[in-house]
Amino acid sequence: MTPAPFHSDKAFSADTAAENAPLLELCGVSRRFPGVLALDNVSFELQPGEVHVLFGENGAGKSTMISMIAGVYEPSDGEIRFRGQPVELHSVHHARSLGISAVFQEFSLVEQLNVEQNLFLGDEQTTRGLLNRRALHEEAERILARLGFPLKPKQKVAYLSRAEQQMVEIAKAFRSRLSVLILDEPTASLTERETDRLFELVAQVKAQGVGIIYITHRMAEIRRIADRITVLRDGRHIDTVDAAATSEDQLVSLMTGRVIDQIFPDIANAPAETLLSIDNLTTEDRRVDDVSIHARRGEVVGLAGLVGAGKSKLLRACFGLEEVAAGRVTFDGEDVTGASTRDMLDRGFFYSPPDRRAEGLVMIRNCRENITLPSLHLPAFQKWNLLRRRVEWKRALDLATRLQLHPLKIEREVDHFSGGNQQKVLLAKCLTRDVKLYVFDEPTVGVDVGTRVEIYKFIAELCEQGAAVIVISSDLPEVLHLSHRLYVMHRGRLQAELTGDAITQENVLRNFFDKEAA
What we know:
The protein is of the alpha/beta class and 518 residues long. The chain folds into 3 domains: 18-256, Rossmann fold (3-Layer(aba) Sandwich), CATH 3.40.50; 278-348 and 435-518, P-loop containing nucleotide triphosphate hydrolases (Rossmann fold), CATH 3.40.50; 365-433, no CATH class. Helix content is 32%, strand content 25%. The strands form 6 sheets. Strands 6-9-10-3-11-12 form a 6-stranded mixed beta sheet, with helices on both faces. The relative contact order is 0.11. Mean pLDDT is 89; it is low at 1-5 and 8-17.
């Protein structure tokens, strides 16, 4: 069945647009924060019916720019024009009234509410002043069916996976009248199938004259949907180029100001003894069902699968974050089934979660405290039950320097850093103690190409130093290029184990679905 068309704002266009004017213009816009010039005299234009990609390193000013367009901030200098007319966007609500809707990288969901309540939060349907729950529920069902998202309106958001929460955010944007759609890393937690569906929706609204501003660090996505690309660096406009006529190397050079020879490193494969064995594991909620895998020192093991496949649940259960109903987990020769997270940390098992804001970092505390948090109880950081602050400070600074934190200010709150630098702080946490097994769950979510290269080199170093590394990722090229062995999961069960030349995109995708259906 063909989805119903989305609403665009063509009626508004006829009244206000200057003929042939861009849909949206930023004219010499700057934005200052205390001590920071986040955007410096940036000009930008968006045409009706185009996908215009914003490209740049973390901290380049992309998020600040789209926040101004979405009504979160007002420019310090310069002017915003909408359909040829100057406009002052005083709030998100004002921007939405013009048809400007944004899906930000950091979610704005209320986890204690359900899906349908989040979809209509602030715009609830009422009858005679009372909430019309039935109409709200029916409209939510229509929206989710039209989008093709496997969500139920009554599901509580707190119990959804990050990818499912991403779908809720996208649904919020697509439910209303659209003239400008802003998508900030919308596929960061989505797999190929969910991404394909999103791109179908983008093509649909594009054909209706909606302008799309799209932020991504994935080259394959740029090649697939971009018409033009604007590159930002250090808050300045570097260039706007034709997507079809610009190579990946040219884009990366424009973004970083330097040439990156190789994105994925060549990781030596020297597997030694088995460190982790998972035998016939089933979780209490049965999102993982009778799965057996293993990981050895000196190798990178990848886990791939669609949203809800159980790839994260499997390792979270081993780390003590999910209840185990059956099966056995053996780590470094000992049965650790059902062990606590603290116990697993002390044994040398480190799990880095996919959602750095919700699970990985304490956003209101500084980098130093976040980096050393998992290890403060260790003798290296305390004496007579008192924190050795000088030792803590030096260790945090050394790790921040090693991972090239920018700016190198370890006393600064983590929330004031870009997403890529927040990810570096998250990775630094695993280096404050002895670790035998590193599990990285979506290690490059929302980070730029330059930071990706640094993270991949970091993973390679850990493996080549003799650690076991497991990479869980929805980014298919990531697991294809990093893995020495690759497991594919579907609906909580193990579909395949691939090694060597068998690790191909075709083989992985083939195992994303039921073998009977294939």
